[in-house]
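Homework help board

Subject: predicted structure for assignment chain

Our instructor gave us this sequence and asked us to write out the predicted structure in token form, then describe one feature. I got the tokens but I'm not sure how to describe them. Can anyone check?
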Amino acid sequence: MHQNLDLTLLKNIKVNTPAVRQRLASMFTRRAIKQGSQVAFYIRAIESIDLTTLQADDTETNVHRLCEKAINPVRSEILKQVGFDSKIHVGAVCVYERMIPYAKESLRNSGIPIAAVSTDFPAGQTSLKNRISQIRTSIELGANEIDVVINRELLLGNRYSEFFNEIKLMKEACGKNHMKVILGTGQLGTLEMVWRGSELAMQAGADFIKTSTGFEPINATFSVGLIMIRAIRSFYDRTGIKIGFKPAGGIRTASDALKWITIIREELGEEWLTPKLFRLGASTLLSDIERQLQHFATGGYGSTRYNPIS
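My token output:
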């Protein structure tokens, strides 16, 4: 449910960039996840991945393969060797609208949601009418979650009321389906603008705020992530509403995943470390996490050719 538009909050947004860098440096050294706990947090990371394929050459076959990996993200023998005997799967599978029927067929009875990128992804430059239509079509085809792209022109042009109203209408089109609002932070210029966009998106009804499409020159940086997470914390303190966070774009290593988890733990707490409130948008991250788990289990790294598509 959206909140009433409150523009007064935007006037007081100031970001101390050196302090942001200092905070991150402290978290990644003194507050880093210790080796003895890493397996458990690797499992949490896997369960939070939006396993993604957004290529121009996507086909029915590679979507089916991706879904098989989503259902069985780590080989069972590796899980047993690290002392984990429960069934796990990723947080969601993220695809283009046209690929939704293939994902729906492959994921039937798996419990894994389908996330669809929408609203003229990745540019968001078509008419609002067309973007709303795309949301509705994706839901009709079977998407459970919609990742929408903001109209950056409105935000960068300080047309905040129009920006708020567009996202509000997108949320109405999504209905009960979760809406993740992609800010495209690499094109917003300043950390203050990132906070403004985050705040307005949450006021307008976003269930998640997401850093990037993955197609911007700069995608999910830790500085941007910290600002968005603090915006979420501020919004929660004010409203009591928990908003999810999804970094996406350029997240490829298990080490990166642990750093994102560290920021969430330190700034929002363990309660945010569930797929309902935290996702990692990635296409290749899962392979590296599986290799790290194999290293814990055997002391050696397997070749990536032994890991199915991820």
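Reply (TA_rk): Your tokens look well-formed. For the description, you could write something like this. The first helix runs from residue 8 to 11. That's the kind of observation they're looking for.
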